[in-house]
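pls read this protein.

:::
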Amino acid sequence: MQKTALSHSETRRAEEILTILRQTLTIRDEDFAASRIAKETHDPFRVLIVTILSQNCTDIAALRGYYELERAVGVSPSSLRVARLQTIRKAIRTAGLYKQKAKAIKELSTVILEKYSGDFASTIVGPFLEVRDRLQELPKVGPKTADVLLSIWGQQTISVDTHVDRVSKRLGFAQTKAKYEEVRSNLMQVFREEDYRLIPLYFMALGRKICKAQRPLCPTCPINSLCPYKNKTKPRIA
């Protein structure tokens, strides 16, 4: 992706924001389902499954569902294809939307076995855009899920979940009504490629702990002075 020219002040602000976040926020594997499973298994398919489970729910709930699924039937294309749908539903119930996710997991496992002979790792090898499009042809895999996988396996991209989206817009890196691809593209323009993997982790951590949807904790935010958000909250009066 070719970068457009950005003002020196904007790129410097982005670098300063990330520097402060790295100094003030703690990133733990257990807080990010995909990162944790990648570290534990080094298996793209297992990371894909836990990322699907994390859609519309917390990473903690997704991990509970993942580990229960592993215990109940095993997390592999072959074991999931032959598993009873009801068994998968019961195992991943804590992850929410379990009926839709169970159906997608069954379909996904079948596609990977039939189209890729069960070798899911082969689907993430190749030119970035080609691989990204290929992943999004799979059931329940949208741009965010594809970007999570690609980022973990070394591709230069940034995944944008609800926290990353909110933080990016409040920081002025994207317009309020910007869609997924625009937010992602803007972040990739303003941050350095070597930092792409870190942006979602730190923006998610900030969004969960401080830059909350309903009432952000602006007075305690470590990057308050670098944030142009117009509706900042004020310190509570005791």
Q: What stands out?
A: The first helix runs from residue 8 to 24. The CA atoms of residues 71 and 124 lie 26 Å apart. Confidence is low (pLDDT under 50) at residues 1-5.
